[in-house]
């Protein structure tokens, strides 16, 4: 076949073609050559060549038919496109004409040209509808360029806004397929933001209208559905949903701020948010405070129920205030002492739950309150915390603890008030931390700051006063216990034995028991308090402890060996005083130890001892009182040496 194709030359001449074929065929030549003329062979070659030509003709014919069909198809498509372009142009031309006619018709008097005006209006409306339908179809087909053309034509028509509405509606078809409507809305706006500039001449207006549509229809409907269901039946869920929905809406607004929405997009978006939530935010703080009160009351009641405890009524008003003032001035327990069985009625779990509820309330308050109402709303939440945590829980525990402190002359009294002090201190720290971390940022730049600080100061001072009263009475009870030990264990014969020669020089049994009791109380005080409070209380206990021992020693008469035993007791008391780690207390017992030396020193050395470093500055009456305790004081020799 390739050989046959090579025989064709342009221009084609049949005789020359046959001549070339014969010449190339072996045995076809007539003028000499390597082979003689062979007519049979030449005939065969002609027959074969004719067959090849027929096959080639068929192939060429099929190719021609295929090309003709393709050409016809392209011609039809081209004609259709030309027709569409012509039609499109006639629409544009018609739109221009009808628009001008419509403007002119506005100026014509109705009575004379009512029919003309009506026809123009009808044609205007029909053409407008056709354009909108064309835009709708182009949007469904994704033909951005056609949408841009039609939108440009409609720009001068009244129905241009309807064109925008159609675009916005169709943009949202199939846009909300996830479970997160806020994420869907963000993705939709991002997609439209990339596209809208290629279609409309005012993309920022169209995008703003889309966002407005999303907020006022989709989001508002979703928010209403989520909130109305639990608004009246479940305040806790309602507040959680409100906070979550408002937060997610404002987060969406923050994402939309990156788009061009016109001049003041901040105000625009804020108004949209407000339009959704205004009916819920107007009474938000009432719902918040109502829920917080009921929730706090439930937390406390659940705790007291778990203790099988019925809260005592703590009186208020004139009588209670009078009792409080008398108690503070006289340290007298007014009313019968109650047995708390070691229960402090303070619970860290309760405190944590109350603070957690309040923390969440502060967070919601910060997010949901109007800036002008924020300090006032935060203060209302703070007052609820004060009411239930400080008054209903801590103050009640302090009052109960005070009522549980036994009188100072009670025997074997269990002193649980220090446990109340320990837990109250821990709670104060937690309360103060929440005040600083969560309330202060909300009120720091408002007049409510001073009001909150003053209220906090009053609450703490009131509680510190009760703690001081309780600690003071507890210390009195400790001293009372020591008195009982000394009264029960100390014998007169301890310091004036009948047999001076049969005395084992060591501290007395009373001293051993008192020191053991004191060490236990010192350890308890250190565990119950922190900072300077420990030193303050230990100093007070140390001073009272010293006064007790001083007065106790004044009750006895001392022989020489008894005086030695008293010195051993005081030495043990002084060792116990070292555990206080208060220099003043140790100094008091050092001085007392020096005074006890006056009980045993030789009469000739009394003046020398009294003028020593530790006793030189003491009042002479004090020195004399100790010398008078000696059994040999009335001897003329001793009296002469001390005079």
Automatic annotation (TrEMBL):
Asked whether the UniProt record includes Coiled coil among its keywords, one would answer: yes
Q: Which UniProt keywords apply?
A: Coiled coil, Exocytosis, Transport
User: What is the official name of this protein in its record?
Assistant: Exocyst complex component 5
According to the UniProt entry, the coiled-coil residues are 50-88
Q: Name one GO cellular component term.
A: exocyst
Domain (Exocyst complex component Sec10-like alpha-helical bundle) spans 93-642
- Organism equals Pongo abelii
Family matches, as Pfam families:
Sec10_HB, Sec10_N
């Amino acid at each position: 076949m390739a050989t046959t194709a090579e025989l064709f030359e342009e221009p084609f001449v049949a005789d020359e073609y046959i001549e070339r074929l014969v010449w190339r065929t072996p045995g076809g030549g007539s003028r000499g050559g390597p082979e003689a003329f062979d007519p049979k062979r030449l005939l065969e070659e002609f027959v074969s060549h004719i067959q090849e030509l027929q096959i080639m003709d068929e192939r060429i014919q099929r190719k021609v038919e295929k090309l003709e069909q393709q050409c016809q198809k392209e011609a039809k498509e081209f004609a259709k496109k030309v027709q569409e372009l012509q039609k499109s142009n006639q629409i544009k031309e018609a739109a221009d004409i009808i628009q001008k006619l419509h403007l002119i018709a506005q100026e014509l008097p109705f009575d004379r040209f009512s029919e003309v005006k009506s026809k123009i209006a009808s044609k205007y409306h029909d053409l407008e509808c056709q354009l909108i339908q064309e835009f709708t179809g182009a949007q469904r087909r994704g033909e951005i360029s056609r949408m841009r053309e039609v939108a440009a034509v409609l720009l001068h028509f009244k129905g241009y806004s309807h064109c925008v509405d159609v675009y916005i509606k169709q943009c949202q078809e199939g846009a909300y397929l996830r479970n997160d409507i806020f994420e869907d809305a963000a993705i939709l706006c991002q997609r439209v933001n990339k596209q809208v500039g290629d279609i409309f001449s005012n993309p920022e207006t169209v995008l703003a209208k889309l966002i407005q549509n999303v907020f006022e229809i989709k989001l508002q409907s979703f928010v209403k559905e989520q909130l109305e269901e639990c608004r009246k039946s479940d305040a806790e869920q309602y507040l959680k949903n409100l906070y979550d929905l408002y937060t997610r809406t404002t987060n969406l607004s923050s994402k939309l701020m990156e788009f061009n929405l016109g001049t003041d997009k901040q105000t625009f978006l804020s108004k949209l948010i407000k339009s959704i939530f205004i009916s819920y935010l107007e009474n938000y703080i009432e719902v918040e405070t109502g829920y917080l009160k009921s929730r706090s009351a439930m937390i406390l009641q659940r705790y007291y129920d778990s203790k099988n405890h019925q809260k005592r009524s703590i009186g208020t008003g004139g009588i209670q205030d009078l009792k409080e003032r008398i108690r503070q001035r006289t340290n007298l327990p007014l009313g019968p002492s109650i047995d708390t069985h070691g229960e402090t009625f303070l619970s860290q779990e309760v405190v944590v739950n109350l603070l957690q509820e309040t923390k969440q309330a502060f967070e919601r308050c910060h997010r949901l309150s109007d800036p002008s109402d924020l300090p006032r709303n935060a203060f209302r939440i703070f007052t609820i915390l004060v009411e239930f945590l400080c008054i209903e829980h801590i103050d009640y525990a302090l009052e109960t603890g005070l009522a549980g402190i036994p009188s100072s002359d009670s025997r074997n009294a269990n002193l649980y008030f220090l446990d109340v002090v320990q837990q109250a201190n821990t709670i104060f720290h937690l309360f103060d931390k929440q005040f600083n971390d969560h309330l202060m940022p909300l009120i720091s730049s408002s007049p409510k700051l001073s009001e909150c600080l003053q209220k906090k100061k009053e609450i703490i001072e009131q509680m510190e006063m009760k703690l001081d009263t309780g600690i003071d009475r507890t210390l009195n009870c400790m001293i009372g216990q020591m008195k009982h030990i000394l009264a029960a264990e100390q014998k007169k014969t301890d310091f004036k034995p009948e047999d001076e020669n049969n005395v084992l020089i060591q501290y007395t049994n009373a001293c051993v028991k008192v020191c053991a009791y004191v060490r236990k109380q010192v350890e308890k005080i250190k565990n119950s308090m922190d900072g300077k409070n420990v030193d303050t209380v230990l100093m007070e206990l140390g001073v009272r402890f010293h006064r007790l021992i001083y007065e106790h020693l004044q009750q006895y008469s001392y022989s020489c060996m008894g005086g030695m035993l008293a010195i051993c007791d005081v030495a043990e008391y002084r060792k116990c005083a070292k555990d206080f780690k208060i220099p003043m207390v140790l100094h008091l017992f050092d001085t007392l130890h020096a005074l006890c030396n006056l009980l045993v020193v030789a009469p000739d050395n009394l003046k020398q001892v009294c003028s020593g470093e530790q006793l030189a500055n003491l009042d002479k009456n004090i020195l004399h009182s100790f010398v008078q305790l000696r059994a040999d004081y009335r001897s003329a020799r001793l009296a002469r040496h001390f005079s």
